[in-house]
Design a protein that fits this description.
CATH topology of the largest domain: Lambda Exonuclease, Chain A
Radius of gyration: 24 Å
Strand content: 5-15%
Shape: globular
Structural class: alpha/beta
Number of domains: 3
Helix content: 40-55%
CATH architecture of the largest domain: Alpha-Beta Complex
Order of helices and strands: EHHHHHHEEEHEEHHHHEEHHHH
Number of helices: 15
Number of strands: 8
CATH class of the largest domain: Alpha Beta
Length: 361
């Protein structure tokens, strides 16, 4: 029996995919050690679930304080994520919360089975509204993963109604929505079924004596930061060749660097945790201390107010505000701008060479 999160770990083409994570979870059955992002996400879900079930949004601040205290999280950060209009509306209207389901993926005698929990769903006369709360630091579209497509398959079969999937990104108070077609659902089920059979085939290779690290290779990268099994996986890193005289050795060095970078992050997290609890450490050679940094966060209303004040003061807005990569991305993805639009307005295209080492996909 598989979950979407379990199957999605096998997506080698995804920056979050890693076959070794699947091996740790489903073959070795190792206990997970969730990191801060997962702990924060579960805290958000627990608060929202309680508020909806009790039909009381007034408890949210108190829940944030209690949950933050137990898990050593920031109360204000939690409150900013969960005390937002989409959550308030869900509390007012009510609906199904954390609904567990199991779904066979084909009609064979021993089919693979998918299981999962649906954060929130509401049945209307015309459709089922499927909502998934996300505490991610980056937003994406529903069709960029198969998660909501698989949940939609279950709800569509249960109610015989169209399903509208919604990703609510708590940090940004934004919603990405998609109405799932039969083709969307069939594609999601096909992916889950094929992936489940591939997983079973690889497990059989292990039983036949093949090297687990060849069948379920470690794939270090950005996903390690959010992986529950990084403490097992990164405990040892491969040796890095001292000399590069061939493409094979160059690839060994690149892979070794990826392991070393993620291993370094792991040690930094451990040191940060120790110093947070025990205070700074220092000798004649090194000092390690937690330093508080403060910064300002501007809502859309605040940004508009800043621009208005700058104009009132006669300041050169264009000379102060920069059109950085984030702004360019928003203009392209949300407002249909192209590189040509920027160039026509006077932007100058430049380039530089950077070494990029990432997981092949």
């Amino acid at each position: 029996m598989y979950s979407f999160s379990g199957l999605s770990t096998t997506l080698s083409s995804s920056k979050y995919g890693c076959w070794h994570k699947f091996y740790c979870r489903y073959v070795l059955n190792l206990p997970s050690r969730p990191g801060l992002p997962l702990i924060f996400g579960k805290a958000c879900h627990a608060i929202i679930e309680t508020a909806i079930k009790t039909k009381n949004s007034h408890v949210i601040p108190f829940l944030c304080q209690a949950v933050a205290s137990v898990n050593e999280l920031d109360t204000e950060e939690l409150l900013e994520c969960v005390d937002i209009p989409p959550v308030q509306k869900a509390v007012q209207t009510g609906g199904g919360v954390e609904e567990y389901f199991e779904m066979e993926l084909d009609d064979s005698p021993f089919p693979p089975v998918l299981r999962g929990y649906i954060d929130f769903n509401q049945k209307t006369d015309k459709a089922v509204i499927l909502t998934d709360w996300k505490s991610n630091r980056a937003a994406y579209k529903p069709l960029e993963t198969y998660q909501l497509g698989l949940y939609a398959a279950y709800l569509n079969k249960k109610y015989s109604l169209p399903v509208i999937g919604r990703l609510v990104f708590l940090r940004f108070n934004t919603i990405e929505e998609h109405e799932y077609t039969d083709a969307d659902i069939e594609e999601a089920i096909g992916w889950a079924r094929d992936t489940a059979y591939e997983c079973e085939a690889r497990k059989q290779k292990i039983e036949m004596g093949e090297d687990p690290l060849n069948v379920f290779p470690k794939q270090p990268g950005d996903a390690c930061e959010y992986c529950d099994y990084k403490y097992y996986c990164l405990s040892e890193i491969p040796a890095i060749p001292e000399v590069i005289s061939s493409k094979e050795e160059a690839l060994e060095v690149a892979r070794g660097i990826m392991f070393a970078k993620e291993n370094l992050k792991l040690h930094q997290d451990r040191l940060k945790d120790f110093i947070s609890k025990n205070g700074p450490v220092q000798n004649d050679l090194v000092k390690a201390v937690m330093e508080k940094s403060e910064y300002l966060v501007f809502s859309l209303k605040a940004r508009l107010a800043v621009v208005k004040k700058m104009q009132q003061d006669g300041l050169n807005v264009g000379g102060i505000l920069k059109i950085g990569s984030d702004a360019q991305k928003d203009l392209r993805e949300k407002h249909g701008w192209s590189e040509k639009d920027f160039l026509d307005l006077g932007a100058v295209k430049r380039s530089k060479n950077n070494l990029d080492i990432s997981k092949a996909g």
